[in-house]
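Running this now, will post back.
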Amino acid sequence: MEETIQSSAHTLIEALPYIRKFSGKTVVIKYGGSAMTDEGLRGRIIQDIALLKYVGLRPLLVHGGGPAINAMLQKVGVESRFENGLRITDSATMEITEMVLAGKVNKELVQLLQLHGVDAVGLSGKDGGLLNAVKRDSKNGDLGFVGSIKGVNTRILEVMFENGFVPVIAPVSADQNGTTYNINADDAAVAIASALKAEKLLFLTDVPGILRSVDDPKSRISRVNSSEAYELIRCGTVSGGMVPKVRSAARASEQGVSATHIIDGNMPHALLLELLTSEGVGTLIEAESEGNKEHKE
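Update: finished.
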């Protein structure tokens, strides 16, 4: 019993300098993958976000919702098609995507935060002109109503933060003519974190970070700069679905985000372990700079 108490005390003391350092700082969390479909994991992630809010950080959640979209499309008999990981989005698919992301998924996450005593507000990129979208170009044909982000208006987010709310963002937006587009959630998280000059951007994925050997979780690389990240892609160490994730992380770090982290959302309380302990549990990617010696800086 005494050992358990001492271990708990040690954990709290270890977290103290990081709580002090990040108090008042903005932390953007991109939430997706299988951690969204497992009710137990989802509950623990929401607990982590609630704790971060209570100890003085400013968390912001950007979420995906692919499985929920797929389920609804199947239910109404609309076929799902993809090109290089991007959903080909016709008008019927776009209507359902907006309904699921900005409606069902977004409001479920808001409600979960509220149940933990955290004031949360669900937004899409349309609200307050948050995300200015344009149709996304593709070398592989027309993707339909898939958009890229042209600009971010952070004013509504600052209003939320100043009044103690956690923004929960669905990656759906519109262009200047009012045409609705589906936005890749990773891209939305990078754009928002960069515009806010966030202290941290964390990608919750299904892998423990960048691995030197894809079959060996113990080969995790704990820290790289953006140039090293691009080199890992070039030499093939980073491959497959991790390539766009690592590129997004490196790009965010080059655009003013202090540090970007890729962590395994399937690990219980991975957010807290990555942010509030000296070792961390994922891969930290930062812009090239000198003098950073601690894992969390």
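The domain at 36-42+62-194 is CATH 3.40.1160.10 (Carbamate kinase). More later if anyone needs it.
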